[in-house]
Amino acid sequence: MEIRAMREADRDAVYTLLLSSLDEYFVPEIPVYFLAQWPCGQLVAADSVGNIVGYLAGARLSNGRVSVSLFCVAAPWRGRGVGSRLLIAFRQRAVMDGYRTIQLEVRTTNFAALEFYRRRGFLPTEKIVGFYNNGGDAIRMIGSAVLNS
Ligand SMILES: CC(C)(COP(=O)(O)OP(=O)(O)OC[C@H]1O[C@@H](n2cnc3c(N)ncnc32)[C@H](O)[C@@H]1OP(=O)(O)O)[C@@H](O)C(=O)NCCC(=O)NCCS
Q1: Do residues 143 and 101 make contact, with C-beta atoms less than 8 angstroms apart?
Q2: Cβ–ligand 1 contact at 106 (below 6 Å)
Q3: Please, what is the angle between helix 30-37 and helix 11-21, to 10°?
Q4: What digits encode the pLDDT tens for the residues 50-62?
Q5: Which end of the chain has less Cβ packing within 10 Å, N or C?
Q6: Into how many domains does the chain fold?
Q7: Quick one: average pLDDT of 78-99?
């Protein structure tokens, strides 16, 4: 298992993983859009033969924070530490780029993800009604990019 920067050649594999992992529709251009906005904020996890099994898309926000905008691990790989490693790598990249705070939104019904972030130091700050295009509310969570701070 390797965590590395996303490359443009990963676009199709990343998009396939996105559609199969998240219960929302995304346009096919979305991974390349994030890549163009902030190349070093895009991470993938690849298995031993190079298949993409995890993806984290970060974004730099106008409020001086970064966000985890898209985050998924292929179902057979969940619960094996891939997501944790992606988040650690993302925190390191955020710090390298001078950011201290990470902001993200989680569907109110996604208890596994809410718990995942809570255990990694993220705190809920507000509920955002109608956040998702296909309906549904989000919980915004804030966490430090600096581990053990
Ligand atoms: C949230 C997600 C990215 C986490 O990735 P992951 O590789 O499963 O993460 P990890 O294995 O590092 O940790 C998962 C935690 O759930 C536990 N877990 C156990 N079995 C699990 C399973 N089958 N699936 C998910 N988590 C499981 C792990 O023990 C771990 O617990 P911990 O917090 O006590 O360490 C991943 O579960 C996922 O893609 N979910 C669907 C998409 C999603 O909800 N994305 C987030 C949107 S904000």
Answers
A1: yes
A2: yes
A3: 120
A4: 999 999 999 999 9
A5: C
A6: 1
A7: 97
Distance 28 CA to ligand 1 centre (A): 24
- The answer to whether the beta carbons of residues 58 and 95 sit under 8 Å apart is no
- Ligand 1 neighbourhood includes 80 CB (under 6 angstroms): yes
> Residue 50: which CATH number?
3.40.630.30
Q: Within 13 Å, how many C-alpha atoms sit on residue 32's CB side? A: 9
Q: State the residue range of the domain holding 95.
A: 2-103
DSSP code per residue over the chain: -EEEE--GGGHHHHHHHHHHHSSS---TTHHHHHHHH-GGGEEEEE-TT--EEEEEEEEE-TTS-EEEEEEEE-GGGTTTTHHHHHHHHHHHHHHHTT--EEEEEEETT-HHHHHHHHHTT-EEEEEETT-STTS--EEEEEEESSTT-
pLDDT of residue 149 exceeding 60, the answer is: no
Q: Is residue 111 part of a domain?
A: no
**CB-CB contact of 11 with 32 (8 Å):** yes
Q: Which atom of ligand 1 is nearest to the CA of 87?
A: 12
Q: Is the CB of 76 under 6 A from ligand 1?
A: no
